[in-house]
Design brief:
The chain has one domain. It is built from six helices and seven strands. The strands form two sheets. The chain has a five-stranded mixed sheet with strand order 1-2-3-5-4, with helices on one face. The protein has a two-stranded antiparallel ribbon with strand order 6-7. A hairpin with a 2-residue loop joins strand 6 and strand 7.
């Protein structure tokens, strides 16, 4: 039986099982309030557990008229044992969703042709993957999600039985927890400077 889906903000379609986490992640991205996003479980996502991508049907509309998917793997395989999204701690899931929303923020800056080129490069270049994944992490941290992003990285790299090849890929392509902390500190310094200027 297919899971019930909830419509949120009139333009977000979210499976009921992750509704609370998705709402928290979205709360950090007010710029996405008017953007249509469908969160959808998928049987198999190659090399990843989540994936954000624009809907092809309206790719060539204006930047503010595009809509997006966030695909989520319905089952993970860990040392030959399956587990589901329900086994992921809530703060980790919020961080994972926040990272994918960071991708959508990045996509919104690109033209339709820019997104096509991005997709081609993402498939063929590990250097380009690294740039794209780090951009998504940076958007998430700058939106105030630093603690959630760190929790997600910590879960993947230290506290789960995910395959070593997946952990190595995450360590190689994404910001490390230490790099995220640097970004968090820089953000806090900028906010303090802005407060001083206002007072």
């Amino acid at each position: 039986m297919e899971e019930k889906k909830i419509v949120y903000q009139n333009n977000k379609i979210i499976p009921e099982s992750i509704l609370n986490e998705a709402k928290i992640a979205l709360s950090y991205y007010p710029d996405l309030e008017d953007i249509e996003i469908e969160f959808r479980f998928k049987e198999d996502i190659k090399k990843s557990f989540m994936q954000a991508q624009p809907k092809v049907s309206n790719l060539f509309k204006g930047k503010d008229s595009r809509s997006y998917y966030i695909f989520m793997s319905s089952k993970f395989l860990i040392e030959e044992e399956e587990f589901s999204m329900a086994d992921v701690p809530s703060d980790v899931l919020i961080g994972w969703l926040g990272h994918e929303l960071g991708h959508i923020m990045d996509y919104r800056e690109k033209s339709a042709m820019g997104l096509v080129i991005f997709g081609m490069r993402y498939v063929t270049s590990s250097r380009y993957i690294k740039e794209a994944e780090r951009a998504a992490d940076t958007y998430a941290v700058n939106s105030g999600m630093g603690d959630y992003i760190i929790a997600t990285k910590d879960f993947i790299l230290n506290h789960s039985h995910l395959s070593e090849s997946y952990k190595e890929r995450i360590a190689r392509l994404y910001l490390s927890p230490e790099e995220i902390l640097v970004l968090v500190n820089e953000l806090e310094e900028r906010l303090e400077e802005a407060e001083k200027e206002e007072s």
